[in-house]
Amino acid sequence: MSIHLPPLITQWREREGITQQQAAKRIGISQSFLSRMESGERFPERATAQLLIGAGVITAEQYAAAMVNAPASQAA
Asked: What does the pLDDT read at residue 5?
């Protein structure tokens, strides 16, 4: 199964009805990093993935599936 995180992250934020700034604060990351993840420019490293999972943005299973599609230079 092919999973891409950017749309999952954006869909979560839109479902919550919050801005990127509010979402970033809730997750515990910077707004600029959230923006880069939503655009697909950056892939979350494990520590950031744990924050996303803890905030209910994605599941551990979704992250693991997305790792298969992550560029080698970004997956860590």
From this structure: 95
